[in-house]
Amino acid sequence: MTDKPVTACVLIIGNEILSGRTQDANLSFLGRRLNEIGIRLTEARVIPDVEPVIVETLNWARARFDYVFTTGGIGPTHDDITSACVAKAFGIPLILHPEARARLEAHYPPGQFNEARRRMAHTPQGARLIDNPVSTAPGFQVENVFVMAGIPVIMQAMFDGIAHRLSGGKPLLSRSLTLALGEGRIAKQLGALQEIYPDVEMGSYPFNREGDIGTRLVLRATEAARLDAAALELDEIVKTLGAAAEWDLDLSPHKK
Amino acid sequence: MTDKPVTACVLIIGNEILSGRTQDANLSFLGRRLNEIGIRLTEARVIPDVEPVIVETLNWARARFDYVFTTGGIGPTHDDITSACVAKAFGIPLILHPEARARLEAHYPPGQFNEARRRMAHTPQGARLIDNPVSTAPGFQVENVFVMAGIPVIMQAMFDGIAHRLSGGKPLLSRSLTLALGEGRIAKQLGALQEIYPDVEMGSYPFNREGDIGTRLVLRATEAARLDAAALELDEIVKTLGAAAEWDLDLSPHKK
């Protein structure tokens, strides 16, 4: 296990996310799950179904991050161009993958594994398949790039199947509390605390729920002892403010 | 009104989105609202609260797109660094904006416009304020960059206040239908139709809702006559498939 953070980038591919028709649900899932295995989601990009944009973005991301995860664009229709773009980015041919083809042939009723669906059996040459226990059509991995479906239930099942292929660093542990005060009331003390604990990332997230103003404070660190020490100090600060404050369940500053 | 598409990029700034703690709700809102005024959201990036990343991404985006919208990072706490990064990206000083300061001073009870909250009155020199009718602390505009809050209700109110400053091209009109069939059953005909109508963007979005598999087909174009013609042909194709299909309300292929 290394001390250097292991990083990831997510590429969300699809016009439907950019047009606002579809609300992305994959980013928050991947952010949480990657963090659990010690991989930090460091950036995400939402890009359209446009070949040069996908190719350029993919080549940028795979050189810069330890892992790249793509979602979307691997179905049977003309606008599903992710697989071809990945092949192009790597400079390797797109081929009919024998195992993917066999799985899809077995999946569909006789005569329904048509020409369009054969698109879904194509991968860059040498790609390693990613199982799809929901609807069979597989994703695939080429080097540090994992190509997955866009439909959340399928993407999540695919991720479950590849999590064991990933090597993380130290996971970021976290403690968080909700404070019934605007963040401007604790900003100064929080900033001072941050200076004392440069190794504990301190985030302040205001919210406004039907007129109730409050702040969620999140501490994150790889070292439990440092995190606990910072959380105890934050707890003291919060008590002096005299407002309602609640630590997340099982994550009180006194618990490991 | 020009025929060249007017483009936009959204920068979602905040560790909490990347960690998966917070589900972004701003992208889909902006995608829809921008499209209504003829501006195409062409790319979005989710980036952490890290100065060089924000500065670099902002400078890339403002040179490449007609408009850039940022969300997040303009509050009073130490991790709110968006305003300073925008100033740095433009190479202009960050100043205490007199009007922003006056608004905030009037907003808080005496003695509560503290040092931390004064951060929220800082903008790059010469910035034009963006009103915040929810909680006063303003956003701001510098050239083609619009800096807004991350809390959705505030961001939406801010956008309503600046929409009149934006000049769009022709809006993309759309027709969409939901088909009770996997997309592989219509992929071939849809691809052929796309070739006949290169000026009509055709998207196919499969879904899997509690085991119900279906496809949403979306046609988008700037010219109503072309869109209607393509929708009528698609309607014919769908009828031959014999599956349940429903056009979105008020958007049947026979209506303008």
Task: Furnish the topology, listing elements before pairings.
Two copies of one chain form a homodimer.
Chain A: E1 6-13, H1 15-18, H2 26-36, E2 39-47, H3 51-64, E3 67-71, H4 82-90, E4 94-96, H5 98-107, H6 115-118, E5 122-124, E6 128-130, E7 139-142, E8 145-148, H7 152-162, E9 173-179, H8 187-196, E10 201-209, E11 212-221, H9 224-241, E12 245-247
Parallel strand pairs in A: 1-2, 1-3, 3-8
Antiparallel strand pairs in A: 4-5, 6-7, 7-8, 9-11, 9-12, 10-11
Helix pairs in contact in A: 3-4
Short description, anyone?
By secondary structure, chain A is of the alpha/beta class. Chain A is 36% helix and 27% strand. Chain A folds into 2 domains: 6-165, 3-Layer(aba) Sandwich (Molybdenum Cofactor Biosythetic Enzyme, Chain A), CATH 3.40.980; 173-247, Alpha-Beta Plaits (2-Layer Sandwich), CATH 3.30.70.
